[in-house]
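re: ur question from the group chat, yeah i did fold both. here u go
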Amino acid sequence: MVAIFVVLTFIVFIGISSLLQKKEIEDSVDDLVVSTKRISLPFPKGYFFSPNHTWLSLESSGNITIGIDELVQRFFGKINSVKLKNSGDYIMKGEELIVFNKGDKKISLTSPVSGKIEYANFEIDQDPDKLTNTPYQECWMYSVKPTHLSDDIKSFKIAEQAKTWLSNEFSRLKDFVLAHQMQPALSNVTLSDGGALVDGIADYLDTKAIGEFEQQFLMNMNEDL
């Protein structure tokens, strides 16, 4: 009986200790949890993805529609304003195309193609909250008449290749955040393998880190297939 009592006491002690440790961990962790999994948005079909995290879809007219992908949207989170070029403007691949503003922070994206802007979607500038729901479909930025599309899209991804690439990019974003966790604002940010990627990582980064994100994720226009 004594032996059984000792065993039961030990089991109860372990259970209480585990609960206390779990509560201590929960109390010490901020609400922000970053994950590499993409479970919140369905992957769009028929879209080309540029290495600089813009997407393109082909229109029946021969024009292309351009927008941003999920990684940029989730990194920035809620956006205050979007600066777009005007219809009729000519753009070159690698030229600044879109500027997102959030307080004193901004992120610039370059054009994945060269061509003439037929239409600019200024509704996004008037209501940038639309990007919080989905960066695809109705949240396009431009309709462009391309001039060198066959050359420009050589480094683009589509279908399963694009899906794998974007998943790997979220893993790379995880490493990027880990590398900046020494910053006071990120000291309580944790990285998890479960759940959806929480919007607004940019809120926890300084201007220098934002610039590094641009260089590492948004400036590569010629990634090998």
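okk and heres the other one u asked abt
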Amino acid sequence: AGSRRLGHMHGELFKSRCEDPRCPHPPFVDDGEYLSIDEVPRCACGRHIRPHVVWFGEKPLEMELIERRVHECDLLVVVGSSGLVYPAAGFVYDVRRRQGMGDGVQSLYVGPEYPDNAEAFDEVRTGKAGDVLPTLFSL
């Protein structure tokens, strides 16, 4: 959609990072160098390396960036969400609040079935994302 820097709130499967959130070493593309059957690999700081993904009960990554973008966008497009899991399911309600204050922002859902929060979207288009998304925008 023209974004220069994506916010990966659930992480990236092919990256790894230190288990210590205060560690200064950034996530890295994991080419398998750290894979070991014998022991859990360690970061240069001494703590364990873990997948760069968000597990249940953890705060999603880059939330400040994502929330800022939701508050600045003209169009929120949500693709393939169940509409049940927060904080992501609440983004469309943030857009609704903006609309209530007179902001011209719009929201659109695309997915195989209606999400649990479908009533909050301005428009819902059901179908496979690979089929529906190309029909929405012309380049």
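fwiw on the second one: The longest helix spans residues 63-72. The CA atoms of residues 129 and 135 lie 10 Å apart. idk if thats what u expected
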